[in-house]
User: What shape does this take?
Amino acid sequence: MQDVQLTVNGENHRMRVDTRVSLLDALREHLGLTGTKKGCDQGACGACTVIVDGQRIASCLALAVQYDGRQITTIEGLGTAEAPHPMQRAFVKHDGFQCGYCTSGQICSAIAMLDEYRAGAPSVVTEDIGATDIRLSDGEIRERMSGNLCRCGAYNGIVAAIREVAVSTGVSEQ
Assistant: This one.
């Protein structure tokens, strides 16, 4: 057992956890933040994606003790029912979900992905990895989101939602 302090959605939480407890289980079982979903528990589906210090991670593959003192954002920390995050609004507007199980991971991943793109990080489909003005095409969005699976097949709505937020925030042109 080890004491851990996690800053989740701006709140400090101190807890004692077994050193084998995943960050996902600490969030869900110790803190009651069930918006982050357990999909495959193998890092393959992206349902458990959260943002840690601005980077998206699969929380099922991360040990809670590794994130002692780090800033963690879950879907619960992005917006409220009264004031949803722009990405949450766009997912609703473009039907970027059906059953909703993968949606929290998709949204967290999309937000962090746009930050990665804004910072100039190339993807596998980027034609010129040395370019400083990578075009955020639908192919780029799909590749950058490829670690998040949607079993309902809402990919077109997901891409449209991300595109809308990218354009409205000046990250990308139409």
Notes: The chain has two domains: 2-77, 86-168. The mean pLDDT is 95. Residues 103-118 form the longest helix (16 residues). The chain is about 30% helix and 15% strand.
